[in-house]
Amino acid sequence: MIQGLQSIAFENSPYIVESASVVGKKEGEGPLGSMFDMVEENDLFGEDTWEAAESTMQKQACVLALGKAHMEAGEIRYLFGGDLLRQGVATSMGVEELNIPMFGLYGACSTSGEAIALASMSVAAGYGDNMLAVTSSHFGSAEKEFRFPLGYANQRPLSAHWTVTGSGAFVVGTKRSHVRVTGITVGKIVDYGLKDSQNMGACMAPAACDTILRNLEDFGRTPDDYNRIVTGDLGYVGQSILFDLMRGKNVDIKKNHMDCGMTIYDQKTQDTHAGGSGCGCAAVTLSSYILPKLARGEWKRILFVPTGALMSTVSFNEGESVPGIAHGIVLEHC
C-alpha cells in the first residue's frame, strides 16, 4: 500500500461510516449554521470553565457520531483524539466516560487529519473493524492557553484567526457507506522561520504547499483530478500565500481550492479577521459540509488537508519560530 515517498494508497479502503459536529453560538450563526448536528447557545456548555466546556463538547460529538452509526462505545476498537491544550486535557477528560482504548494526538489544527489517517491505517491493516477519530478546539480555552485571558480585551491584528468552538467526531470502519478513505499523504514539518503567532496562515501555508505537491506527485495526479483541494484553516492571508507558493512550483489550484477557515464564518458580518482556525475548524466543516457533498455524489474525490501551526507558549516566549505541518486525506464518493 506504500505510494511514493510519503503516501499510502489503501488496497481495502476504509469508510467514513458516520460523523458528528458540535459547535458554539458564533459558529451556529455562520454560513454553515443549519448543517451542524448540534449548536450550543452557551459556550460554557453547562460547565464552569472553558476547558471543561471543551471536554463536554468533545464527548457530545463522540456520542452523537456513535448514535448516528447505531453503535455502542464498546464496538470501537481504538479512539484517536486530540486538541490544542497542554497534555491534551480536553480529550482525555472528554472521552474518559466512553472507556475506549485511546491514542492522544497533537498536530495543532491538523489533528483531525492525523486522527483520520491513523484510524484509517488501523482499519486497513486489520487492527479492528471500527475506530473513532475526534478533535476539538474552543475559543475561550485557546485564547487562555496561547494568547491573553478574554477579560484582558486586547486588540487583535487583522492577520489573526478566530479559534472555532467546535468538535468533530468520525467513525472510521469496514461498514460500507458513501464515503471512503482511499489514500493519505503524511505531512512533514516545514519551517520558514516566521515568528508571528498572530499570523498562523503564513506559518501554515508552506506546509500545505509541501503536502499538496507531494500528494500530487505520489499519486501521479494533477489538481484537476480533485473536485476540491480543501485546506484546514489558512484563512484569507494563508490562502493568498499558498497560491503564490504553488504557482512558484508551476501548479495552480486556485479554481478548485477551498479553505475551511474561510467557509465557516461570514467575513462581512462576523468579526473574525483572517478566518477560523483550531482543531475543530476543519473537523466540523468536514462533517457538516464536505462529507454530505461527497455522500450525495456532488463531489467525486477531494483532497482534505488540515493545517497546523506547531507552537507552544514556551517556544514562543523563547523566541522560536512557528513551524507548520499538514496531512492529506483522499476522500472519494462510492
TrEMBL record:
SUPFAM superfamilies found in the cross-reference section: Thiolase-like
GO MF, any single term: acyltransferase activity
Domain of life assignment: Bacteria
Protein name from the UniProt record: Stage V sporulation protein AD
InterPro entries (UniProt xref): SpoVAD (IPR010894), SpoVAD_sf (IPR038369), Thiolase-like (IPR016039)
